[in-house]
Request: fold
Amino acid sequence: MASDAILVDWQDRHAELFGKHLIRLRHRLHESPLFSDEALARLIERVPRAHYHVNTMNRSFHDPASWRDGEIGDARGEEVLEAVRNGNIWVLLQRVAELDPDYRAALERIFAEFEDKVPGLKTFKRKMSILISSPKVQVYYHCDIPGQSLWQIKGRKRVYVYPNTEPFLRQEAMEKIILNEADEQETPYEPWFDEYAEAIDLEPGQMLHWPINGPHRVVNEDCLNVSFTTEHWTRELRNRYANHYANGVLRRSFGVRQPRIVESGPALWGKLALAAAHRYSGLQRKNRMTFKVDFRVDPKAPMGMRDIDAYELAK
Ligand SMILES: [Fe+2]
Reply:
């Protein structure tokens, strides 16, 4: 293994596990200057409004109704970091690989290593998002649409990963997300699901990759956290997406009650064709997500934020 490799403790078994089971690996990116306070502060100042979220929420228990959106305003990067360190906020910087070539290079290196190690793996539409979050904040139960990994840079967090099958992830819930009728956070959750979750305490220099659409939730320990996520697609993942998409259409437009997931053959081609026809015919709801923004980051205010007059933001 090259001495500057990002992945540290890859073993042959991980090639068989990748994408099918939860894997935890060690990595070196927590030592990279890309994630220093200075680099993050400059990135915060450059990220366009359309590509970030600042949120606050109830830190005590699963309470999706408490999730609020905010804005950075004209706070400097260092002020935002101070507000996160002492407050109750969660900052998400999206599409950083499109914003800066150094992050793009890191993202490309990550997937070059995975593709080198996993026979047949070919990824596309990769993305990187950086998460900077306060002590004890939570990200509630949800699922993501593309292939997803979480990389820990600073601080510690507990990640709960649940099976990507019913009852933890219902097919209808997945179809709603894919057809833009719900966002990922609206995945139904019951506290007893935790008894069937894998709970992992993630430390700097560790990463997790879990099976596609695997529901998960995250609870920070009592310290500032810096992490990033990577997203990717493969042909298999795209086929699965098309299945959900076509099944959602079949259920809604053709009254099919229990549409199946098919992996290959003419039935798969039919699903791909139906999903593509629906997408490109403009029948899909084009509505962008709207967010009510009602606070601004302020390191001098309690919890690192203060209320402002609410306004709507469409993304
Ligand atoms: Fe997620």
About this structure: The longest helix spans residues 235-253.
